[in-house]
Amino acid sequence: MEALLYWLKLGFISFGGPAGQISMMHQELVEKRRWISEHRFLHALNYTMVLPGPEAQQLATYIGWLMHGVWGGIAAGFLFVLPSLFILSGLTWIYLAYGNVPIVEGILYGIKPAVTAIVVFAAYRIGSRALTNNVLRAMAVAAFIAIFAFRIPFPYIVLMAGIIASVGARFAPEKFKAGGHHGSSGGSFGPAIIDDHTPAPEHTQFKWQRFALFALVGIAIGVAIMAMLTFTYGWEGTLTQMGVFFTKAALVTFGGAYAVLPYVYQGGVEQYGWLNGTQMIDGLALGETTPGPL
Question: Cα–Cα–Cα angle for 214, 48, 182, nearest 5°?
């Protein structure tokens, strides 16, 4: 029960994007509650950084799973986003109902420059950490030209960058060496429930049978949802196409939420026309002012 209450509380206070959310979890879980050691925490964080999707939510899910098994992971991941789901739904309703009211319109108009500044700063922060040499900087410039000037779909750019990096790592490994997103443990905060030398729980030990079961269940859930949408709205229906689009987005969101914004803009605004540019910025503003993943 204590863990459930903590994950729910985190869902209400997790402002500040992934960096702030990860910092909150570190302070609470590593320093105060001592549920997990710093080394194990950083080990888990490094795993989530190489996976697509929101790293803070994945970290919460991983720690919940590590401590309490599958249902612990599901509860942690679900509660991490549940408050923001309701809060953002309420704000969206207000936006749709009163977005044209002068005072609301003025507030949103004033937020837009701040949101733009946040995105630019995030791009600078990510770039300064990831682009450590001229080869990587040249790849970033080429990717920008590809998506801005030639409007090449974002997944193709990510795929091509991955291929170039894979080949480049063979011939010039010093240019494509991982910079290390997170340092090693800076100190000990005392013994933890899951410490550096705590034996791995049985449910965390890799088994092909378990892996295959989880994979099949995940695929079955995805196929069932898409089949239901297709049956109800048809393949060309808006909700069906949203399901396909955001499934693809979930698979290419390497680098965090800000890195995938061009893909979401390209698809949601330019390709499908679900939103216009103004609505996209307004939605981003609402996402920035609420807890949970962006």
Answer: 160
In a domain? residue 166? no
Contact indicator for 63, 29 with CB cutoff of 8 Å: yes
pLDDT at position 180 is 45
Sign of CA dihedral 249, 21, 61, 91: negative
208 assigned to some structural domain: yes
Using CA atoms, how far apart are residues 91 and 89, in angstroms rounded to an integer?
6
The C-alpha atoms of residue 43 and residue 34 are separated, in whole angstroms, by 16
Q: What is the mean pLDDT of residues 80-108?
A: 80
Inter-residue contact 3 to 64 (CB < 8 Å): yes
Does a structural domain hold residue 179? Answer: no
Q: If you count DSSP H runs as helices and E runs as strands, how many of each does the chain have, helices first?
A: 11, 0
Residue with tokens 């922060």: 125
Torsion region of 190: left, alpha or beta (phi above 0 gives left; psi -120 to 50 gives alpha): left
Provide the residue range defining the domain that includes 74.
2-132+192-288
Q: Where are the beta strands (DSSP E) in the chain?
A: none
What tens digit of pLDDT does each residue of 102-148 get?
A: 776 677 667 667 766 766 776 676 577 667 888 888 998 998 898 77
pLDDT at 183: 46
Tens of pLDDT, residues 24-56: 888 888 888 888 888 888 888 877 877 887 888
SS3 253: coil
Number of domains into which the chain is organized: 1
Query: Which residue is it, tokens 């795929």?
Result: 159
CB atoms within 10 A of CB 133: 13
pLDDT value, residue 240: 95
pLDDT at 294 over 80: no
Name every residue whose Cβ is closer than 8 Å to that of residue 34 and which is 6 or more positions away in sequence: 189, 190, 191, 192, 193
Question: Which residues partner with 36 through β-bridges?
Answer: 194
Residue 269 within a domain: yes
